[in-house]
Amino acid sequence: MNATDNWDSEELARAEALAAELRPSSHHRKLFAVRAPGRVNLIGEHTDYSSLPVLPIAIDRSIIIVASPRDDANVELRNLDPSFPAREFRLDAKIPPYATGDWANYVKAGFQGVIDHFGNKGVEIDKLRGATMIVDGRVPPAAGLSSSAALTVSSALALMAVNDLSQDPLATAQMVARSEWYVGTMAGGMDQAASTLGLRDHAMLIHFDPLRVSPVKMPPGAAIIVADSLEVSDKSGKVRAEYNRRVIECAIAARILGKAIGLENVRMLGDVVKQLKRWTARDLVEALAKSAPERISISQASPILNVREESLRAEVLGPSAQRINIDETRPLEILRRARHVLTETERVSLAAEAMPAGRLDEMGALMDASHQSLRDDFDASTSRLDAMVACAREAGAFGARLTGAGFGGCIIALVREADAGSVLKHLQRDYYSRIDAGVASRALHTIVHAGPGAGVIRLS
């Protein structure tokens, strides 16, 4: 396959436009173009950080970086969008982050992943070359489509390219899987794996620890609609705190459940599932309910687990220097969170069979159940997201649900391809028409297609 096969003509034109801006200052050095797509998760929400499977697609919206190597370790970074200011920093074994919320932290996160990974493989970090880079992002930010992962993946690949570092895509996906921990988000590896390993016309059934990806053919005659609620889902602010809280709630639930059913070395709910030959969400939720209150604090969980409180805090919040802060005046909702993750895992397995078989009614019902669980058990939906889901269902969608972390962002709807235009019109009439016209006119609401994963090309 040619290196450009994963690039469409629009993306190649964007890369050439960026290169034209960079060439005068690159002094005839090599130029590399990197693309990384956003993703939409069909089902399997908030399961990846419990090491449980997901079913996303890489979408036909991408971030492109054009990079030129430098003779020093400095990085000059510019974004075509003027709302993201230019940045300069230096490569180091440990790159200090900018202030919370700075867009360039996702670039640094990608770079730090490369430095840690290849440093452990014997690459001399102090000899890595910096880069001059220009970014053109077409994945809407803070919409739940993983613009952050696309930027992190493309940044990692850009640093690898200018330093002649290479490895297979699966190894790269594993390298960047925890990259957003750099910016303080305790994310799983779904977003980065989908962006790196996407396959045209296929969803990806992704398992973790170890990372494994199986293609799932998208059925003919079906379409995926993505619609932005215009409610910001920004994982650098309040949403990050809620996201991290869910990670901690699931971790406490896993430990208590593991102890209750006699399992060892349980740190996440995936550890429970993988140690059992047969299980059902109902049985595991019942076992958890018998072993601890529905709501609990870390200090209350400590004696149940027979673990010192400070040790438990270090395990679930991180060591003192990097400790995640949560509002401990609120109890941890362990039962409802575990119920969502375990039932969602069952839904992923069923969806991976229903989709390629073209059982769209069944897939739609699974999506509806996923949204209800995210709303009722995970508290990740909002009134806007609920309204959009209801609108899409009333318009004839097989099913609809929030996608991404939630707390705002986008919904997806599974529809007949022939009905997509009608569903989009209903969303315009019954949702967007009630929002400020100037804001609504900029909203993403369209069909998305399963596209290829990230790629790098050398520009002449």
Q: How many domains would you count in the coordinates?
A: 3
Largest sheet: 6 strands, mixed
Please compute the radius of gyration using only Cα atoms.
22 Å
Q: Detail the poorly predicted runs.
A: none
Secondary-structure element pattern, one letter each: HEEEEHEHHHEEEHHHEHHEHHHEEHHEE
Shape: globular
Question: What is the percentage of strand-forming residues?
Answer: 15-25%
Spell out the key features of this protein:
single chain; about 450 residues; alpha+beta; Ribosomal Protein S5, domain 2; Alpha-Beta Plaits; de novo design (two linked rop proteins); six-stranded mixed beta sheet; four-stranded antiparallel beta sheet; about 40% helix; globular
Write a structural description:
The protein is α+β, with helices and mostly antiparallel strands. It folds into three domains: 3-217 and 450-459, Ribosomal Protein S5, domain 2; 224-235 and 353-448, GHMP kinase, C-terminal domain (Alpha-Beta Plaits, 2-Layer Sandwich), CATH 3.30.70.890; 238-336, Up-down Bundle (de novo design (two linked rop proteins)), CATH 1.20.1440. Helix content is 41%, strand content 19%. The protein has helices at residues 9-26, 105-120, 147-162, 169-176, 190-197, 238-260, 269-275, 281-291, 298-305, 309-317, 334-354, 360-376, 383-394, 420-430, 437-440, and strands at 31-43, 55-69, 74-79, 87-90, 131-137, 202-207, 212-217, 222-228, 295-296, 332-333, 399-403, 410-416, 445-448, 455-459. A six-stranded mixed beta sheet has the order 4-3-5-2-1-14, sandwiched between helices. Helix 3 packs across helix 5 (190-197), helix 8 (281-291) runs antiparallel to helix 11 and helix 11 packs antiparallel against helix 12. The chain is globular and about 70 Å long. The two termini are 19 Å apart.
